[in-house]
Amino acid sequence: MAVPCVKFGENSHVQILTTYTCISACLCWFRGAPAGLSALLCQTALSQLLQNNLLPFHCPHEADDNQEVEPQVVLLQSEAVQRLFLNKLIDGALAWHQKFPKPSPSPSRFLLCSVHAIKNTRRKMEDKHLALAEFNQLFGIQDGVDCAYYAVFDGHGGVDAATFAATHLHVALSKQETLRSDTATAFKTAFKHTDDIFKSKAKRERLRSGTTAVAVLIQGQELTVAWLGDSQAMLVRKGQAVTLMDPHKPDREDEKQRIEDLGGCITFMGCWRVNGTYAVSRAIGDFDQKPYVSGDADCSTTQLCGDEDYVLLACDGFFDAVKPSEVPRMVLDALHLSCDPGGRADALLEQSEDTAGLRVAQQLVGHAKAAGSSDNITVMLVFLRPPQQLLAQNSSTGPAQATQYSSQDAPQQ
User: GO CC annotations (predicted)?
Assistant: First the structure.
């Protein structure tokens, strides 16, 4: 049985892609642990690991007779690297037992993430998501600016592209020199880098999947959203929906023109599709339809003034059934439902900031399903101020009739 391997490029890429493997494992192992401590321990162990000579972990190419071996490509034994990383984590924890590190400063901005995802009526769950409130601590970034990362990926043709993007994009972003000075360029480069690396993996493993993506980076008073395809992010400020982006769809006029200029076409087959295949015009993967299905991300940046309520990220399984203008009312209704089964309006106010509002995403997913969505549904709601404040400021407006979420689908991670 062949040893599972991770594909690497030149030496400068070895450390980056080792980081992919280790951080992905760390986020899985420490799920549910205090985010700040797990991020700091992960960074400590990773720093120690990258000082090691990784040459003993290289493994030979296993190309087919009909498959060319790409030049300057190295394969690394991922299981062996993870075992070494686990040992470094243990060493770090033992060192902490002797001398506990100084805790990181508390973030200056309130952030609370509510997320829920269901397979719905589809045969497979192809959505992925990631929330990293401790972005700087995880990657050892010390620029004095709080940074948090949130992303939703909607896969199609298999889950491989979505899984790959969910474990690689944030690492590629963290390595961009322009991350602070030009976040939009950093995002676009990170998306392109992720698409290029997945292309090598897809060629080697004969994968045909793709994924849309929407990612949000909150740096200090600046919110940047980057996207490919029709997954979306929206902001709510003072109870009003704020448009952050225009999703990539084949029938969007500029996308239609771009595809036709390249010699492709869009056709209506239940919905508008690129060359009669995919219903999105931009994605990571889908290499059989490149360049018509583009891997070039778009970005937009919004300055935060302090009066923002929350930012919502979701796949098309949500937004095909729910209009953005409906979201503010639905969130308030969900907060009321989260108060107390008996309907006490002050029950949410009695909850701590760490727990209040955590079930809101579940209610929003329930709304989309009740509205007729049969697709995978992922909703990620990032509160930018305590939910208690939102409810208190809208206490004069009682809850409208809302759908109580009930499904046999368990949340998908």
Answer: cytosol; nucleus
